[in-house]
Every structure is written in C-alpha cells, then in structure tokens.
Amino acid sequence: MVYADDLGALELLAAAVDPGTWKDVPDVRALDRAAGAAPWMLATLHAVAGAVSLRAAAAELTVHHSTLLDRLVRAEHLLGWSVRTPQGRVRLHLAFAVRRLLRHPDQLTRPSTSTSTGSSHA
C-alpha cells in the first residue's frame, strides 16, 4: 500500500493516472516489453532506479559490476533510452510508478480527513 502523503508531488501523477484513459503509455509499454525479454530485467531496472550508484545496484543484485553493465546495455536497447543518466533514471522511476498505478490503482490510500478537527490521519 502507498500513502498519498508519502508521494509528495508524485501525487499529481497518481491523480492523473486513470486506467481507462492511460491504456497505452509508451514508457510503460517499453518497460513491459523489456520485462518479457529476460527474467532478471525488472529486478535489475528496479535496483538501478533506486540505488545511489551502479556499483550499489550490482551489490544489491549480487552480480558483478560488469554483469550489470551488460544487462543495462540490453535493457537500454529494449527501453529506447539510457537509464544511466539522471534524466533516464527519472524516466524509469516514472515508468515504474505509472505501471504500478495502472496495475494496482487500489493501492493508493488517501488519509481520511476529520471534519471536526481538520486533521488528517494516516
């Protein structure tokens, strides 16, 4: 479950994602295509998106740094963009976020607001 308060500005994206109208998002389609190409693909891309460095991602995946680089060459070819640049990582993060929201729209929870105090509860 994801709490809306934890999303910050990404809550705008979550509010805009409507499975009925966002059926064909190119970056999500590219991510799905890449996922189907190799069993390690999503875990590798997820690690790269969340790690502070490629070496840290390799350590998280328990693969050698050169193995990770070989995987990224293949992933980038399938995705159509580099995930080794800051812009590419942001794009990858957004693709993962939209993919998750499209597949599991019920996992976004907005805290209830108390009408008597005006405070919100998580």
Key words describing this protein structure:
single chain; 122 residues; mainly alpha; Arc Repressor Mutant, subunit A; two-stranded parallel ribbon; 6 helices; disordered C terminus
Give the topology.
Layout: E1 2-3, H1 10-16, H2 26-35, H3 41-50, H4 54-61, H5 65-79, H6 86-103, E2 108-109
Parallel strand pairs: 1-2
Helix pairs in contact: 3-4, 3-6, 4-5
Description:
The chain has 6 helices and 2 strands. The chain is mainly alpha-helical and 122 residues long. It has a single domain (2-109), classed as Arc Repressor Mutant, subunit A (Orthogonal Bundle), CATH 1.10.10. A two-stranded parallel ribbon has the order 1-2. It is globular, with a radius of gyration of 17 Å.
The unreliable regions are 113-122
Oligomeric form: single chain
Distance between the termini: 12 Å
Largest sheet properties? 2 strands, parallel
Largest beta sheet: strand ordering: 1-2
The global form is globular
Question: In which range does the helix fraction lie?
Answer: 55-70%
Give the H and E element order.
EHHHHHHE
CATH topology: Arc Repressor Mutant, subunit A
Any idea how many domains? 1
Query: What is the tally of helical segments?
Result: 6
What's the CATH C level?
Answer: Mainly Alpha
Instruction: Return the CATH architecture.
Output: Orthogonal Bundle
Radius of gyration: 17 Å
Strand content: under 5%
Integer average pLDDT:
82
Number of strands: 2
Helix/strand structural class:
mainly alpha
